[in-house]
Structure formats: structure tokens, C-alpha cells
Amino acid sequence: MIETKRLTKHYGNLTALVDLDLVIEAGDIFGFIGPNGAGKTTTMRILVTLLEPSSGQAFIDGLDITKKGKEVRRMVGYMPDFMGIYDDLKVFEYLEFFAAAFSIEHKKRKSIVEGVLELTDLQSKGSFTVDSLSRGMQQRLGLARVLIHDPKVLVLDEPASGLDPRARIEIRELLRELKRMGKTIMISSHILSELEEICDHIGIIEQGRLVFSGTMEEIRQRMGVQSKVRVQVANNQQRAIELLSALPEVQDVQSTGRYIAVTLDKDQNTDGIIARVLVNGDIDIVSLEPQQVKLDEAFLQLTKGIVH
Amino acid sequence: MNIGLSKSVRYILKPSWLTGPIFDKELRVSSRRRRNYVLRSAYLAILTVFVVLVWHTMVRFQGAAAYRISQMSVAGLAIITTIIMFQFVATQLIAVVMLSTSISDEIYNRTLGVLMTTPINSFQIVMGKLFSKLLQIILLLAISLPLLATVRVFGGVPWNYVISSVCITLTAVIFAGVLSLYFSISARRAYVVILKTLFTLGIIYLFIPIMVVLVSQSFVPTIRQPLMLFSIVMLPNPFVVMQFNTAAMMSPGAVGIMPIPLSWPIHCVVMLGASVFLLAWSMRIVRRVALRQATGQLDLATKNRKKKKLSLKTTKSEGQSGLIRRVKGSPVVWKELRAPIIQGSRKKNIIGLAITIIALLITYAVNMKEKLLDEDFTHIAYTLVFVIIGLITNIVLSATTITTEKETRSWPILLATSMSDWQILIGKAVGVFRRCLPIWLLLAGHLILFITVRYIHPIAVVHLAILVTWIVVFLSGSGLYFSARLKRTTSAVVANFALALTLWAVIPLLLGLVATITYESDILEAYILTNPVVQTVVIMDGAGGSHNATRNLSRLNYEWPSPSGSNWNSIRSTTSILFITMLIYMSMGLLFAWRAKCRFRRNIF
């Protein structure tokens, strides 16, 4: 659905994007992460035709964004990392204005606006002025706006920034609902744990270069990161450590208070081996929790923290 | 005890107690702004050009040495009065523009509340803002001092004139600046503050005195000495006092004409008193706004919205939903028409319009009583007022239409819709026209009314329609261009004003001075034909008044400033001149509009 080929963008002497190659499949939620100034927002702005690339190509549903700007805009909903509001417009008017801007027929607009208000749980706010809404409500309104013309692709730049935990959870649920509706979503966020939960694919960008793109599983494989298992035993913790250390699959065993942290060589299911060894050694197991590599850990390992 | 006292004395003697760190901060920031250096250079360049031209006009390098020396004192007088008048007008305008965002920036960047968490008080905030900007203006005044001192050597100008003029200028600048600062507390946008300040100054300096004199003369015949009344109501008007001061220097006998001389020291005291009062009021409001912000409450500007929101809740609970307006036609035009001309509620705008119409009707009543309504000059004055207000409104509204979207960051979102650039451009242009329409309708109403009673010839409608058409197209085009080109509303408005002033004031003035030097006035006269003010005057001079209203078309006489040997007084020539001017300016306007469209997607963020 979204594809970029050697996409490059220069701002004077500053190079914001370097030969970015990206593929996002239809119906996927693609998490785009990177440090501040890495080039995420520039990529998104190019994809929604607000910036022209210095070189390279980008396609949305097979359409070249530099040649078919109007058609691309018709199929993309863009939510920037700021809330552009019109003073003195009410929520309903704001949405109807954009419905009209996307050439939606007058007679259909009312039902469409009411539909997106319902989807974003803003039905009760229709007659409120946009600037009187709270930050969370404005973010919802931003989402409602991008949905008004029923686009195939949603490009969301930091949609959850500045929101309280409840509002973040609600936005996350809304994105899941949109995925169920078949939308392709490209989303950037600094809250990596949230992306991890909702994204099918992750792209990590630094200094304008894509350092990784793939699923969470592929991240783990790429990093060669070991799986970790946290074990809690009811008796004889020292004996348990000795038994586990003797296993060839185990790289490291450490006692962390009540728990034993076991680092395995490979990302494979060795929980059964650990359980068997401990039971055979007459040690009662209280819990055994596999610990997967987190996105923030992967992010820290894959990026150097260098910004432009 | 002694140590404490000396500490207090030392603190009071240090000027920093007056302004606190705000003054330092403002100076630091302004030193980093390129526009301040550009302003100083431009100011000096314009001043130099005027002085050189006046010098060349006045001093002839021919004839006897005694004659040339005598000419020098005349030139000195002309140069000094030119510089002083230039400074007087320019510095007031600069003060209004400079202070137009002084407090609003702090309010809307939410730094005012932060300042309140420090030992800085509202007195220091207001004084710091005012003095830092005044310092910039004093620098401008100081730039011309060496020039004034040099020219003073030629003689012809007494020192007390220079000093009194500088005092009048300074107090006028302080008053205009304080008024602008006061309005910047309640209005977010600089252009709104600038318009409000200029409008208020116009009311204080011009409208109230004229109305007082006219109404008292017409309806209170017991007032035997209108000149005395005039000199009292004109005392707070720096323009009149400056004019009087200059006239007194040129011909001291003129002072005796006024029953109460327009004394400049009294005027300066009045102006300073008014400024101090306004400053004290501003401090009170600033403190209130700052405390609201510091405690997380709504500021003054959003208080009204809160009220609106509450009222909405009430109406909603009552099941009413008529408050929402449905989008009809072009969404861009619809949105433009939702924006009020001046910030504030629609109700306030309607009240303002009603007051304007009532004031207009009062002037009609006064002029009718004085039997002036059938005179051509009365209708020249009315039409000029309408055209100039229309010009200013068009300049401002067209230049704000895109920059306000950039400032609220809604511009990229609008560009991300499937609307084409042409659709947006045409929508914006139509929106500007529709918002300016009330003023042109007032002009049309005036014309229709007095055509009906046979005080204006009907052909004036056609000629003024041509004039208004090119004014609207040209200024809307240029305004849209500057609005698309620049990021800040204030910059776009100033640029559009500068273009209009350059075309219709500065170039004619320079051409006039060149014509005086070269004795060749054809270029000036040809150029001045296209000036909207000149065209308005000529149209109404030819078609206004009862003596013209009933004439046959072929007998109407228009007095154009025509180049030597040509006679352009007929209706045919007049229509041709207006039509050609319209073609030229409309072409330029459309060119500007096209360039604006080309710039839509450049530097969006």
C-alpha cells in the first residue's frame, strides 16, 4: 500500500532523509520510531504530499505522490503532530468543513459527521467550540477529521503525545478498531510499549536512514537477543541456580531476590527443559515466566542516539 | 538602619527597579532580530532621500554667493521641518506596530503566568515592555540628530522649535505605544491591535473634535466662540499642536489668532497624563490575566468563550441545536465568512456597524442643516472616507487570510485535503471580497441615496464601480501573495500596507520632488492619474453636487491632472482613464494572485 524508493530529502545543508526504502502492506499497522530529528515527520509529510522529496520516489496504492497529488490526498488521512484548529468553529462545523473540503455531497455530510463522532466517542461534543476541548478530546477530533473521507491509508504523527493514560488506551483501542475496518495505518510515537502492542511491523529510523524494518519477531532475530526466563522457586534457590547453570542452553543465571533470572542462548522455547530439570532436582516451582525482548530495548540497541 | 536605608536609596536610584529583567530580556531578543536592523537602515535611507531631494529643491547652485547663502537658511528650515514631520508621523506608526504584540505574545505563549511565579511584578512587566520598545524608537530619533545639528548650522530654525517638536513627538509616541500595549492585552493578533489603535486614535484626534465643533455649531447656537471650543478640543491632538507649533515658528503672528494658544507644554502634560492613566489600567489587567494564567484558570481572552461554552450546555440541555451552522457552497468561503472582521463576538461587530451608521446619519443631519449636502466637496469627502476605509480593510483582510491559518497551524491540514490550489485561492479571494462588502455597500448606499435626491450624477456609480473593482482585485491579489509568502500576519499586513503606501504616496511624493528639481511634471501627472485617491476626487468633483447631478453626460467636466498639451476633461476620457487603470491594476492583482498560488506549498511548516 505504501512504498518508498531511495527517498531523500535535503533542507539546505541538512539531510533529513537518505535513500529511504520502505514497504507497508495493505491492512498493516506500521510503527515508525526513531529519536527526535531522525526523519519520521519528514517521511510522513512527503507521503501526504505536503513536502516534495529531493530525490527518490514514493507510492501510495501504486500512485506516485509527486505526480498524482490530488488522488493521493483523497485516499490518505493525515494527522500531524500538532492540532491545527480554527477559532470559533464548533466540532460539528469543523468536521463538516473538512467533509466539504473532500467534496463529500452536502446531503451525505450530516450522517458521515455523526458517524465519525460516534466512532471517536465525541457525539456529546458536537456543539462545543474546537478550542474549548481538552487535549485528549482534540486528539480524538483529529482522528475523527482524518476519517471523515474514509481514507484507505492513515498517517498519524504522534497521535498519543501529551495524553493521559486513559486517553492513550482509548486511542489504542480506536486504532485496533480501524485496523479491523481494513485501514492501513502508519503511526509514529515515542511511547514504544504501545506501538509494540498494536503494530504488525516496526520501522526504526535514525539520522534519516532506516536502520531496521520488520516484525517484532524479526527484530529479535536480527538482534540475536537471547530469551530470558524468570523463575520463582519455593525452596532451595541455590541448588536451583546450580542445576540451571549446568544446562548447555543457558548462558547466564542470576539471583534477583526472590527470583532467578535465566538467560538462554537462543530465542527458542526452553521453558520445558528448565521445568523438567528443576522438578527432577526436587525443587518446587512457584512460577516460570518467559521474558521477551522489549521494543525499547531493541530501540536502544539499534540506534545510537545521534540526532541532526 | 542606615545600611537598610542606603540599600533602599541605591535600589531606587538604579533604573533596573523600574523594569526588572524584562527590559534586559527584550533588548537581548531585539538585538537578535534582523528586522530591527532593516528598520533602522530603511528609516535612515528614506530620511536621507527626503533630505537630499528637499536640499536640491531649495538650493540652487547658480547666482551670487550672497543669494546662495540666503538660500541655505531657507533650505535648513525646510529640511528640519521635513525631518521633524517625517519623524513625527513615522515614529508613531512604528510605536503602534512594535507594541502591538508586546503583551499578547506573553499571554499566548503562556509565559505571563510563569513570570508571576518570580518576584517580577506587573508594573515591571508593563514598563519593561514599553521602555524596551521606546528605546528602539528613541534610537531612530537619535539617528537623525547629527543631521539636524548639521543643518541647524545653516540657520533659520530656533532651538526651541527643535526641542518642542521632539517633546511633542515623544509624548505622541508614548501615548500611541501605550494604547497599542493596552489593546495587546485583549487581542491576540497584531493586526487587530494595530487597527484598533489607529481607529481609536482617529476617533480621539479627529472624529470627536470635529463632531463636537459641528454639533455645537449647528445645534447649540449659544456658543459664540467656536474657535475657542476648537482650540480646547484640539489640545490633545498632537497633529494640530505640531502644525500650530510649526506655523508659530514660520510666522509668529499666527499665534495671536487662537484665543487659547495650543501650548505644547500643556499638550505634552495632557498626553503624559493620559498615558500614565492607561498604563496604570494596563498594569491592573495584566496582573489579573497573569494571576489567572499562573493559577491555571482561563485568561481574559478565553473567558468569553467559556461563557459561550456554558451557554451552549444550557441550550443543549434544553434540546436546542440551532447554533450549529451547516457548510454551504465552497468550504473555504464559508469558513472565511465565519471569521469576524475584528476579533470579538459577532454581536460586538454588529454594534460597531450600528454605531457607524448612526454617526453617518448624524453627519448627514449636520450637513443638511448647514446646507452642505448639495455641494460637490461634501460628497468628495464622504466618498474619500468610504474608499480609504475600504482600501485599509481590503489591505488588512487579504493579507491575513493565509497567515492566520499558518499561525493556528491549520494550513497544512487544509493543504492535505483534496481541494486544488485554485479552489483554495478562489475561495480565499471571494472570502476577502465578501468580508469587505459591508463597506462597499455603505458607499453604494450613499451614492444611491444622493443620486435619488439629485445631489450626485448617476454616472458616478459606473466610475466608482470601475475604481472599486480594480482596488479590490489588486489589493486582494497582493494581500494573498504576501499572506502566502510570509509566515506572520503582522509581516503580511505591513508588507501589503507598504506596497500601497509606496505606490500611492511615496512614489508620487518622490516624483513631485523630482518634478520640482527638473521642472518636468509630465511623468508625475501621468502617474498620479492612476492614484485611487486622485481618481475618487476627480470622479466626485465631476459628478458630485446638485449643479452636476442634473447635467447632460456630455456637459460633465472632470479636472484630471493632465500632462502638458492634453485635455482629458470629457466623460469619454475619464472612462478611458479609469478603464485603462483598471486593466493595469487588475493584471497586476491577478499576477500577484497567481504567484500566491505558486507559493502555497512552499515553506508550509
Describe what this molecule looks like in 3D:
The complex is a heterodimer of chains A (308) and B (605). Chain A is α/β, with parallel strands linked by helices and 308 residues long. Chain A has helices at residues 40-47, 69-75, 91-101, 106-119, 135-147, 165-180, 192-198, 216-223, 237-245, 271-280, 295-302, and strands spanning 2-11, 14-24, 29-33, 55-60, 63-64, 76-79, 153-157, 184-188, 201-206, 209-214, 228-233, 250-256, 259-264, 285-291. In chain A, 36% of the residues lie in helices and 28% in strands. Chain A starts with a strand and ends in a 6-residue tail after the last helix. The mean pLDDT of chain A is 84. Chain B is mostly helical and 605 residues long. Chain B has 2 domains: 19-301; 329-343 and 373-599. In chain B, 76% of the residues lie in helices and 0% in strands. Chain B contains 27 helices and no strands. Chain B is globular. The model of chain B is unreliable at 299-322 (pLDDT under 50). Chain A binds chain B through residues 45, 48-52, 70, 73-74, 76, 78, 80, 82-90, 92-93, 96-103, 106, 109-110, 126-129, 131-132, 145, 149, and chain B through 302, 305-306, 308-309, 312, 315-316, 321, 323-328, 330-332, 334-335, 338-340, 405, 408-420, 601, 604-605.
